[in-house]
Design a protein that fits this description.
Helix content of chain B: over 70%
CATH architecture of one domain in chain B: Up-down Bundle
Largest sheet of chain B: none
CATH class of one domain in chain B: Mainly Alpha
Strand content of chain B: under 5%
CATH architecture of the largest domain in chain A: Orthogonal Bundle
Oligomer: heterodimer
Number of helices of chain B: 9
Number of domains of chain A: 2
Largest interface: A-B, 35 and 33 residues
Number of strands of chain B: 0
CATH class of the largest domain in chain A: Mainly Alpha
Helix content of chain A: 25-40%
Radius of gyration of chain A: 21 Å
Distance between the termini of chain A: 62 Å
Radius of gyration of chain B: 22 Å
Order of helices and strands of chain A: HEEHEEEEEHHHHHHHH
Largest sheet of chain A: 5 strands, mixed
CATH superfamily of the largest domain in chain A: Alpha-helical ferredoxin
Shape of chain A: elongated
Shape of chain B: globular
Number of helices of chain A: 10
Order of helices and strands of chain B: HHHHHHHHH
Chain lengths: 251, 253
């Protein structure tokens, strides 16, 4: 239960009360039934959903499960569905919600663990292997020699796509992925685009076609742009998927 | 593809050379090509049939032009049959290709709808318009195209109006108009995004521009189509006592 004296004290300072409704379900427990639980708490200045959840967990409900690591929008662990939109809890302020009502759901399309916690890691790992996410080259690296220069524009383009934090939001915002389980999603297509523009990688378009040249890959994308519009890192997913599609139809 | 090749693909998911099939790429491209062709066709078709807004004579002249006048004396409706046949074939082929993307089970449909209601995302909702109007057109588009193929001579200011008003085709045309305008323009917007046609230097801004342009065109085309349908209705209403009689051009009187 909320500490009433603390609440009154804070309310005196003019802070509003917010209601956070959380999807509660333990998929490991056969007797468990999915339900929604609402927590009332006092909003503090600059409060993020991450802070609010920590407050709920530490003062009200120690049984609530959710994931986080970095608290700075880098690790991609705290993604969840916030009032219908997949977002990073650590980058979302409670003040964004004018009516003070926030509903939190776990990300769809991933294996549900408990409450807001899902398993994105195993899926991302499998995707990385499936997309062969490493530099393919026959060149033997001589670590004593100076590296070959890369054009700054090209390096920048690769770094830009490398900013993906594998949070899973592009998949949770994708209706194609919601329907077609095997679809590799924007995260996978972005990964292939990243290696296809990297001059260190010697793979040809024919070889990339073997990775994404089907309806689980780039031809499964229906351009619904959920990924583009929800990516917390603002990756250029729309243009990079179109880029891979144009490349792959020419193979 | 030979029997042996398709058997290898059945067993391994790949062709005899151990390579993935190129068919998915071809299907994706063909869906876009046939869709673009049909969308361009329909934008002109609606403009042409709106010629009734300029009067019966304007519509008559345009109809006769499509029947081959002045090269063929009196016009040849079979030209319309041939054109309708080409469009119908393209229409069926496009429907066949686009069907691949439909939700194909209760599970997929349930997941899509529940997800889109949660997400409230504009482009995701546009796709629902796309598949709904596409489904509607399987039937309504077929009725219209079959009629144009088999009765190509019955196009004209009075013939068309009689069909719309007295033959009770107006509810079908009303629904078809809404479906085809939405489907075509939303389809063109999605092609722009899908292939990155107008990405330019600022793809995000250009996407917003494309969407605004498409929404404006939808309104314009719906108004145009509804206005011409209303005019055909009015002509049909006034002409109901002379049902079946044909329009005689002012130049012939």
């Amino acid at each position: 239960m909320i500490n009433k004296s603390a609440q009154i004290e804070e309310n005196k300072e003019g802070y509003r009360e917010i209601k956070i409704t959380v999807f509660r379900y333990n998929s490991q427990n056969k007797d468990a039934k999915p339900e929604y639980q609402t927590y009332k708490l006092v909003e503090t200045p600059g409060m993020t959903l991450y802070i609010a959840l920590i407050k709920i967990w530490s003062t009200m409900d120690h049984n609530l499960s959710f994931d986080f690591v970095c608290r700075a929008g880098i690790c991609g662990s705290c993604s969840m569905v916030v009032n219908g939109k997949p977002k990073l809890a650590c980058k979302t302020r409670t003040s964004e919600f004018e009516d003070g009502k926030i509903t939190l759901l776990p990300l769809p399309t991933f294996k549900h663990i408990k409450d807001l916690s899902v398993d994105t890691g195993n899926w991302m790992n499998a995707m990385s292997k499936k997309m062969e996410s490493w530099i393919h080259t026959k060149e033997v690296t001589d670590i004593a020699a100076i590296e070959k220069p890369v054009e700054p524009d090209v390096a920048q383009a690769v770094f830009e796509l490398d900013r993906c934090i594998e949070c899973g939001i592009c998949l949770a915002a994708c209706s194609t992925k919601v329907m077609k389980e095997d679809f590799v999603g924007a995260v996978g297509l972005n990964r292939v685009a990243r290696f296809s523009i990297d001059p260190h990688d010697e793979r040809t378009d024919e070889e990339f076609y073997e990775l994404i040249g089907d309806d689980d890959g780039v031809f499964g994308c229906m351009s619904l742009m959920g990924c583009e519009d929800h990516c917390p890192k603002d990756l250029p997913l729309q243009t990079k998927i179109a880029y891979m599609r144009r490349k792959m139809v020419k193979v | 593809m030979s029997q042996k090749d398709s058997t290898v693909e059945l067993l391994t998911g790949k062709g005899r050379l151990g390579k993935k099939s190129k068919i998915p790429a071809r299907l994706d491209l063909l869906q876009s090509v046939t869709g673009l062709f049909l969308a361009i066709f329909i934008t002109f078709h609606i403009l042409f049939e709106s010629s009734i807004l300029f009067g019966k004579e304007a519509m008559y002249k345009l109809t006769k032009m499509f029947e081959g006048e002045p090269f063929i004396e009196g016009g040849e409706p079979l030209i319309i049959t041939a054109l309708a046949f080409v469009i119908f074939s393209m229409f069926i082929f496009h429907a066949f290709l686009a069907m691949r993307k439909f939700p194909d089970s209760y599970k997929e449909y349930q997941r899509y709808r529940a997800h889109s209601k949660l997400l409230k995302h504009d482009d995701t909702n546009l796709w629902f318009i796309q598949i709904t109007t596409g489904f509607v057109m399987f039937f309504l588009g077929s009725i219209h195209l079959y009629m144009m193929m088999t009765e190509p001579g019955k196009i004209g200011p009075y013939a068309s109006s009689d069909r719309i008003y007295s033959d009770w085709m107006w509810p079908m045309y009303l629904l078809l108009l809404i479906a085809v305008v939405l489907h075509s323009w939303v389809g063109i917007y999605r092609l722009i995004i899908k292939w990155g046609w107008f990405d330019g230097k600022d793809p995000r801004k250009n996407r917003k521009r494309s969407k605004l342009a498409i929404k404006t065109l939808i309104v314009i085309y719906l108004l145009l189509g509804l206005a011409s349908l209303a005019v055909y209705m009015k002509i049909g209403y006034d002409h109901q006592d002379d049902y079946g009689s044909r329009y005689i051009s002012e130049s012939h009187t």
